[in-house]
Amino acid sequence: MTATALFLFFLFLPWPVAAAAEKSYHWRGLRVRQSTVQDIKQALGEPSTEYREQLLYEKVSFDPMHPDVKDVRLDTVVFNISAKGVIESIFLSPEWGTTDEQLRPVLGEGRKMSYRKFLSTFGEIKIGAGTRPNEKLHYVDLDATCEVYAQSRILLMYIRQDVVTGHYLIQLVVFY
Fold first, then answer.
1. How many domains does the chain have?
2. Rounded to the nearest 5°, which phi and psi values hold at 37?
3. For burial by CB atoms within 10 Å, which of 53, 76, 114, 122 has the most?
4. pLDDT digits (tens, 9 = 90+) for 4-56
5. Phi-psi category of 71—alpha, beta or left, where left has phi over 0 and alpha has psi -120 to 50?
6. Residue 50: CB partners within 8 Å, gap ≥ 6?
7. Which CB contacts under 8 angstroms, 24+ apart, belong to 120-126?
8. Above 90 in pLDDT, residue 91?
9. Is the overall model pTM greater than 0.85, yes or no?
10. Full domain range(s) for residue 171
11. Count of other CB atoms within 10 angstroms of residue 136
12. Residue 74 has what DSSP assignment?
């Protein structure tokens, strides 16, 4: 009887793990390469500034629907819009002092690496006035630490790690 119970335990163990691995996070329900300008305005209201290829929002909370991250405030949110009118990328700039620990309840653990290594997944790294993966300028130190959530296509860009707590200060949260 015990052998059967152990067999059933190990047989069904991978199912919850696989389901958790498939879960991805989409900020406020907005999805890169799917959501439109109208979807953005429906979720966040009218932007502070609107350009043909960008919408800018100021002083928004990260995720008001998640009880563990209600205190995470964003200075700015930039939506880059493609020629087809859908979201190309989302750049969230949190208030100074926001750490990775504040977003862990929503995002969990990602894979830490250098920004250079992350960019290399897009092919050749071009360095000049900025770095251009897919022709977008990024003025970030190539050796800066970042954390990648490949399933959700999220990148956390860190400023530095606090030597006392070990937590990372967040510079940007990028949905790509």
1. 1
2. -60, -40
3. 76
4. 333 333 333 333 333 333 357 889 999 999 999 999 999 999 999 999 899 99
5. alpha
6. 56
7. none
8. yes
9. no
10. 2-175
11. 15
12. E
